[in-house]
Amino acid sequence: MEERVLILAPKGRDTQVMRQLLSELGHETLPCADVAQLTKAMDEGAGTALITEEALQDVSLRDLFDCLRNQPAWSDFPFVLLAARQVSPRTASAQAIVRELGNVVVLERPISAPTLASAVDSALRARRRQYQTRNHLMERERAVTESRQAEAALRASRQALQQLNETLESRINARTQDLARANDRLIKEISERERAQAALVQAQKMEAVGQLTNGIAHDFNNLLTAIVGNIDMIARRTEDARLKRLAGYAMEAAQRATRLTGQLLAFSRSQRLDLRAVPIDQLIEGMGDLMRRSIGPSIDIKLDLASATTNAMADANQLELAILNLVINARDAMPDGGVLTITSAVREAEHSELREGSYVVLSITDTGCGIPQHLQQKVFEPFFTTKPTGKGTGLGLSQVYGITQQSGGTVRIMSTPGKGTTVELWLPIATSELEVTTHPAGVTTMPSSTRGEAILVIEDDFDVRRFIVECLINLGYRVLEAENGHSGLDKLQREPPDLLIVDFAMPGINGAEVATIARERLATLPIIFVTGYADMDAVERVIGPKHLLRKPFDVAALSDTVKEALRSAAPVGVASRPVSLALNPSI
Fold first, then answer.
1. Fewer CB atoms < 10 Å away: N or C end of the chain?
2. Could you report the per-residue pLDDT of 355-389, keeping only the tens digit for each?
3. Helix H or strand E encompassing 147
4. What does the mean pLDDT of the chain come to?
5. Architecture of the CATH domain 276-428
């Protein structure tokens, strides 16, 4: 009952459509006829409420608002409000209703089913965290009760001691010591609960920041795709040396921006890692020259490596980048020189965020200026830096955080101002042998000529779509384009192409749904997904990792991927019988 979804949508088929959608997703729902029934159901227990804006108009909301004001301290009941598209600003009364609801997400209709499902899932997750907080508070109150009982027992014992004769002195002392130990254990348990609560709050904060960071990086990858692609086309078309030089400068800046988005995606654990068994000691020893060149002659490097027989599960390239970031940070913390110590060891899990088992722990310690205690919880957040303005992006440690988390481990920082800093990377031990990457036999270089194949491009971002279309036309292909999945499937039905290029993340119907329907109609149609790193897992579940264009990309990457997809595809036959679009309804 505590996780059911209340639905208040008295007009039309909204209630029926929403209830069917949520039931298919496994949610328990309860339709409410009016605000009074909604308020009663909230008192009985619910996870969230899905309300249309018109259901709150011209009705008394006093009981609902009283119910919200009288919530216990741990509760902040979440609402999802489906609002009509606003041509002009909301009225003062409508704004007041939203304020009184408090914890509300306003979605403007029409709304796609995935968006609605995502909003409901987010609201339910928030409600579960509230229930967790309630349970923690109840446990703490029960422990405050136990402390009072212990204190009362102690006072009673002291009174009893005064009444005993001198022959019982040894028993009195023993009893007092037992009670003191019990009190110490209770205080320790309370402290541990408080630390666990603080860790939970920090984890929730980092998760929220990661989701925001992921969205920002994904949008920037769309922009960078258009920027990188068009700069590349300009450089290829001009013979003017000055223009080529300026285009080169712009491309270098765009590549730096690409690296920044990669760091943001690493923090949000959305970047694709190639996790393999990595011999940590060999990796550190192989980086020796690079580290010495990076820190200069005024800093001594000491190695104490003790995990030579154990491999860690990690992405070797990303791990090298993380280590280099930490080494450079250590260098900056020791402007007058010092000692940099790098150690490795195998240790058992010591933190609540780690699964039980053994880990390879890589520690990097400097003798520098250190970090104040109140800042140590913030150092892994994107764009936070203790360095002077212009001396750092604030993304190095956030990238380290993302790499270790995505590898199944964690990162710890311990620092004392004036005495130095230690950063520990905890990486899970690999259970398999080292894998060897091989290239498939028989792959040959594709010729540069084309036969004028027809390519359908489905991409909702105008700038990205324009770049892809113009590039393909210049390469000699015949190009059809569509701005969304519905339009693209209509064109595919009328004129079957030789190749489909589709963006994965699109509103309404996404690339995965488009690909599924397209394959039902043309079983051998080759498909290329255009995607950001954030979509990689979902893409590979649909079509595998073979034909992917990862944003941002340039003309050469597009050309090579298209040629490979066309080369490896079987000849496209006559389109099969049309299949109706089984799409999710919009509300």
1. N
2. 888 999 999 999 998 888 877 777 776 655 665 55
3. helix 113-163
4. 80
5. 2-Layer Sandwich (3.30)
Nearest CA-CA partner of 343 in 363, 323, 365:
363
First to last CA, the chain: 25
Please choose, from the candidates 463, 461, 464, 459, the residue with its C-alpha nearest in 3D space to the C-alpha of residue 480.
Answer: 459
Query: For 454-568, which CATH class?
Result: alpha beta
Residue by residue, DSSP assigns 151-206 as HHHHHHHHHHHHHS-GGGHHHHHHHHHHHHHHHHHHHHHHHHHHHHHHHHHHHHHH
Q: What is the mean pLDDT of residues 485-501?
A: 92
pLDDT of amino acid 436: 33
Closest CA to 280 of 427, 424, 436: 427
* H/E stretch holding 456: strand 454-458
Q: Tens digits of per-residue pLDDT, 70-125?
A: 999 899 999 999 988 776 777 888 888 889 998 999 998 888 999 999 999 999 99
- Residue listed under structure tokens 């489905």: 458
**pLDDT at position 535 over 60:** no
Considering the chain, tell me which residue range(s) the CATH 3.30.565.10 domain(s) occupy: 276-428
Residue of 299, 365, 381 lying closest to 326 (CA atoms): 365
Assigned CATH topology for domain 5-131: Rossmann fold (3.40.50)
- Considering 112-126, 171-185, 389-403, the range whose residues carry the highest mean pLDDT is 112-126
DSSP-derived secondary structure letter, 429: B
> In Å, what is the CA distance from 560 to each residue of 185, 219, 261, 532, 563?
66, 25, 24, 18, 5
Average pLDDT over residues 452-477: 89
What's the pTM? 0.39
Q: Mean per-residue pLDDT for 43-49?
A: 92
Find the angle CA(180)-CA(182)-CA(188) to the nearest 5 degrees: 105
Closest CA to 267 of 411, 424, 403, 375: 403
In 25-74, DSSP assigns E strands to: 29-31, 48-52
Tell me how far CA of residue 350 lies from CA of 363, 412, 579, in angstroms: 15, 11, 55
pLDDT on residue 447? 38
Q: Which of 120, 40, 34 is nearest to 81 (CA)?
A: 120
Residue range(s) occupied by CATH 3.40.50.2300 in the chain: 5-131, 454-568
**Contact by Cβ (8 Å): 419, 435:** no
Q: Are 521 and 578 in contact (CB under 8 A)?
A: yes
pLDDT (average), residues 195-202: 67
**How far is it, in rounded angstroms, from Cα 378 to Cα 237?**
47
